[in-house]
Write a structure and sequence with these properties.
The chain has helices at residues 2-7, 10-40, 45-58, 60-77, 80-88, 92-105, 118-130, 134-150, 153-175, 191-217, 224-250, 260-278. The chain is built from 12 helices and no strands.
Length: 279
């Protein structure tokens, strides 16, 4: 456990805590500026205060999922590093999966403190940071252009279609009916959301498929218990999410969207603890 004591050393807390504090200060500065800008343009102060209180309230339970992620990773990576990753730009499903994948590539059979080495931690931390930073880099160079493309898409598309139709009609009148009209451009609106959904489904399918294959074949690094429990936990988490979605749609409770992920995680983790004890 010497490596774990190093990962939880005061130096690590100072380094990671300083970054988290800087990001927190930036958030406060932007929140204050946004509030003042709202007052400057004549927004209702009472409504803004209610929005702030509602946002803070609804952010509490979803943040429980982030806290669970910090606790889950702190047993193998120490507390400061997961705290930094999940407080600044990391995502729970990303951090855990990438950490496990990097651990396997370094020769570890599991992401645990008993097998952790300084070299393995350095590789895991580097992979976790490098793979997720490209969103910031690409946003820095291309976000302004992308935002302009998103501004008033309906009016822009309508005007473009009108011009294309007029040009096509004029060409048809001049060249006769045999000349085909100009084809409309391919509509790629919403492609990003669909691509991310497809990628996430593929990633989850790959992980579930690996556990199913190991469970059936009895080979690989996963034992029966190590394969059956993740599959059962995935089923429990999916069932909990389905229940949340049913309640949300049945009773028009849109506020459940803010709690469904954290609630599903709590149900899945409870099932994991229970199954680990009985199997």
């Amino acid at each position: 456990m010497e490596i774990l004591s190093r990962l939880n050393s005061p130096v690590m807390y100072i380094i990671c805590g300083s970054i988290v504090l800087f990001v927190a200060i930036v958030c406060i500065v932007f929140a204050v500026r946004a509030y003042r800008a709202g007052k400057a343009i004549g927004m209702d102060v009472a409504k803004m205060k209610r929005t702030i209180i509602a946002s803070a309230t609804f952010a509490v339970l979803p943040s429980v999922g982030i806290l669970l992620g910090v606790i889950a990773l702190s047993g193998s990576l120490g507390t400061p590093w997961p705290w930094l990753r999940l407080s600044v730009i990391g995502a729970l499903h990303y951090e855990t999966q990438v950490a496990e994948a990097a651990a396997e590539q370094t020769g570890l059979t599991s992401l645990s403190a008993s097998q952790m080495t300084p070299e393995a931690f350095s590789t895991i931390a580097l992979v976790m940071s490098t793979c997720i930073m490209w969103g910031m880099v690409l946003a820095f160079f291309h976000c302004k252009t992308y935002t302009k493309k998103l501004s008033k898409p309906a009016e822009r598309d309508a005007g473009q279609e009108t011009k294309e139709d007029s040009a096509a009609g004029q060409e048809t009148a001049e060249a006769g009916p045999e000349k085909p009209t100009k084809k409309k451009k391919l509509d790629l609106s919403g492609f990003g959301d669909k691509a991310m959904t497809a990628m996430f489904i593929g990633l989850v399918s790959a992980y579930i498929g690996s556990y199913i294959g190991s469970l059936i074949s009895g080979e690989g690094i996963f034992t029966f218990k190590g394969s059956a429990i993740p599959l059962a936990v995935a089923i429990v988490g999916a069932a909990a999410m389905a229940l949340f979605q049913y309640l949300r749609n049945r009773f028009k409770a849109e506020w459940l969207d803010s709690f469904s992920i954290a609630g599903s995680m709590l149900c899945a983790m409870t099932a994991a603890i229970f199954l680990a004890r009985i199997l």
